[in-house]
Amino acid sequence: MTHPAIVETIEALGETTLRVEPARVVELCRFLKDQEKFERLSAVTAVDWYPAEPRFEVVYHLHSVAGNKRLRVKARLSGKSPEIDSMTAVWSGANWYEREVYDMFGITFRNHPNLVRILNPTDWEGYPLRKDYPVHGYKYGYSNE
Amino acid sequence: MSKHPLFEEHVATVPAEQEVPSTPSAPRRMTLNMGPQHPSTHGVLRIVLELEGETIISAEPDIGFLHTGIEKECEQKHWQQVVTLTDRVDYLSNLSNNLVYALTVEKLLQLEIPPKAQWSRVMMAELSRLNSHLVWLGTHALDIGAMSMFFYCFREREDILRILEMFSGQRMMTSYIRIGGLALDHPRGWQHALGKFIRAFPSKVDEYEDLLDSNPIWTRRTKGVGFISLADMLDQGVTGPMIRAAGVPLDCRKTEPYSSYDKFNFKVATRTENDVYARYRVRLQEMRESAKIITQALEGMPDGSWHADAPHVVLPDREKMKTQMEALIYHFKIVTEGFRVPAGEVYQCIESPRGEIGYYIVSDGTSKPYRVHMRTPSFGNLQALPTMLKGILLADSIAALGSMDFVLGDTDR
After folding, report:
1. Which end of chain B, N or C, is more open, meaning fewer C-beta atoms within 10 Å of its C-beta?
2. For B375, which residue in chain A has the nearest alpha carbon?
3. What was the pLDDT predicted at B8?
């Protein structure tokens, strides 16, 4: 498939990955949903490549029930104030997955209807799945003992 | 003698301005907190309900009470050690979790798994499905008021747990499916134990069906309750028996066969009514189909090795370790350092009892995973809860909740 937002198409281990410009990811996914029949958004997640830059990768797993295909869409974000448009306008199922990514990685989703922490308490400090976050958290470290 | 304040006669002291407004256009709304320790939320789930009379206006699930940071912990463990963590994600169908993790890492390692191990995996995953569906049926019927179902279902579940213990040494946290094959070879006499159970099982499912379908309370409380449109389900990422009860035969076992599911003869159960009753029928039918798959696996179990021929991944035999230097070195390397997995990323999904469970794993070529994301079916399904509960009666919400069959450990990870 061709779309101007696609930067790179990677085929590896029998899976297709599209790397796209973060600014146009919603536009591309709308195209994939309407034209290429990827009706389902399976999951949204992120990977932290600290200390590399651009630091974050937001990963979308798409599924076409009619075509029995799966597709991965990735967008890279900088480590300084990572922000990307919310996918909830295309699939409302992106809501909780984006809240989880926000909760765990601190990536902000623009135009998200309810961007608050979902798994951690609302007063939690830091973003646990970032690579520079200690395993025991900031509060319960063993370094001072 | 002055009376205790509790014994004094109650005098209405409601000021005039706080009286209930008489205009019918402004009915009183009430916010009701359900959970986090409500028995029918099956775990620690809190739902904030907005009620108008007995009708639910909006429902907002609040999750995270069972969050244990499993994904972060996966990044600290060796590849093989993560198997024990996956058990604890969805504790009712842990073998499905073991299986999807093993399949994902094997895809990265490009390991060839021998037929016997693949068939055993199918057999164990289906036993796990039976286990999960039995717990679901027992507790779901209990919520609706059919108390005795719970005892019948847990009677059969006990048999399954005994079989799992026979295979793996553990009743619940089995960790039986490992990267590269299984944890152990089949125990002696397994065909007898499993055969005895699986021959009797289909008649037990008929028994459940008789018990529930001839119960008018059950049918009235489930038929036509908990409807959610197919478009909403696809939009919100609902999978599993929920979407199959809406007529879509979406089942990874058929559409994307893994672990030689394509060699088994079974049907995907579907219904079209899309209510609590349809979901119950779908799961009953799935139990029958699982029993068929287990029977086929039992009868046609291939001979051969129960693990892949990959000495750098699979621990060597104890006997070989005592006689062969090479086996001893491999054992030392795997236990202390773990094995390395080539850099790359994969997504692998399987059909768990609750729906699509998919692991997205990124490796950077070291002996620990770089990132493990668990796309769990309970998380995806629970998201559709507000849509499903909107506009229905509070009493029906219990039936609707139960029909989703979520596990909070699976949701919160």
Report:
1. N
2. A43
3. 53
Q: Give residue B225's pLDDT.
A: 87
**Do B412 and A92 count as a contact with CB atoms less than 8 A apart?**
no
pLDDT of A52 reads 86
Q: Give the pLDDT of residue B9.
A: 54
Minimum distance, in Å, between the CA of residue A1 and any CA atom of chain B: 20
> pLDDT at position B402, please?
86
* CATH assignment of the domain containing B333: 1.10.645.10
B50 in any annotated domain: no
Question: What gap in Å lies between CA B33 and CA B55, rounded to an integer?
Answer: 14
Query: pTM for the whole thing?
Result: 0.89
Does residue B286 form part of some domain?
A: yes
- Taking any CB pair shorter than 8 Å as contact, residues of chain B touching chain A are 63-64, 67, 69, 71-73, 76, 107-108, 110, 234-237, 248, 250, 255-256, 344-347, 349, 356, 358, 360, 362, 370-371, 373, 375, 379-380, 383-384, 412-413
Residue stretches of chain B with pLDDT short of 50: none
The total number of structural domains in chain B stands at 1
Range(s) of the domain holding residue B262: 70-412
Domain annotation covers residue B167 = yes
Domains of chain A: 6-110 (3.30.460.80)
β-pair partners for B411: none
Q: How far is residue B179 from each of residues A15, B85, B98, B411, measured CA to CA in Å?
A: 21, 13, 9, 24
With CB atoms and an 8 Å threshold, state whether A135 touches B72: yes
Contacts of A41 in chain B (CB under 8 A): 237
